[in-house]
Amino acid sequence: MRCLGIESSCDETGVAVYDIDLGLLAQGLHSQIEIHARYGGVVPEIASRDHVRRLIPLVEQVLGEADLAIDSLTGVAYTAGPGLAGALLVGAAFARALAYARNLPAIGVHHLEGHLLALMLEPAPPAYPFLALLVSGGHTLLVEVGGVGRYRVLGESLDDAAGEAFDKTASLLGLPYPGGPALARLAEQGDPKRFRFPRPMTGRPGLDFSFSGLKTHAAVTFRELGDDAARADVARAFEEAVVDTLAIKCRRALVATGLSRLVVAGGVAANARLRTTLAALGEKHQVSVHYPRPALCTDNGAMIAYAGCQRLAAGERGPLGFTVRPRWSLSDLAPPDSSPE
Ligand code: KG4
Ligand code: ZN
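A: This is the predicted complex of the input protein with zinc ion.
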């Protein structure tokens, strides 16, 4: 099985080819960040139109660079949800049309399943089961991963995702979109002793998150002081609160499940303070902590090619007609052998 993977759920066009025996053969990405930056966030219609423009040239480029003939593909996988409806439809329509024209099986992949399995593309991936912390601009989840399609959602954000909270707070501090990485850099210069922000939802049992209050806390603190020097201190207090909260819930989930492997994925996994904090936690509790390389942490076609390939290789097939699911719970998924789409 050799799968073309197409990712178009948000503002990144991702294309890759994964071979079940040979591994990842090729990948390419086109990010729309610059186009959306001037609007301060992703504009869905602009995202869809850019996917339309970029997808075919990117597929040609990826196949060309790896010297792969289109005839060598034996399956097509695409992100079917969750995400922006129009953006998803572009990838789904392209993938389904290509599969139909080439008489190949096609499959719609859950975007978060892609993120959860991305680490499997690395040379020495951890064994199942593991605890996954997925922290991106769109999602914050703690999931027990028992294998392909075996997911138990232990906790999730009830409002803003961690990355979204970073971006919104960065914007309140006057940093350009997407401000997560810039806020992290600013926080480095901040005084850690000046402010202490709350660690939301850690005072009661449970593994859910809530980050929107922290953003407001940061905004109020900054506005009341009105002094520009406070920006870095606010950034520092905000970052420490988010990272601490994530670490507290990870520890709780590890204790509750007895798992000894932690996998961190999504754009916020790039955060240096989160990495240091989780490394210390891992050491203290004899838990190994794993990260996919940065290009596999953020949205990409490789994780979709991988997840789709596993399901197609197990015999799962999607119907000829197709739909996308802008809202789609991870809990709806089942292992490949028991779930004809
Ligand atoms: O997974 P991802 O690339 O995209 C989607 O969510 O679709 O994650 C992007 C998110 C953004 O919110 C970005 O600000 C955040 O990850 N991010 C960071 C850092 N690098 C990226 N947040 C905090 N610290 C970072 N170093
Ligand atoms: Zn994503």
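The chain has two domains: 2-117+296-332, 127-291. The chain has a mean pLDDT of 96.
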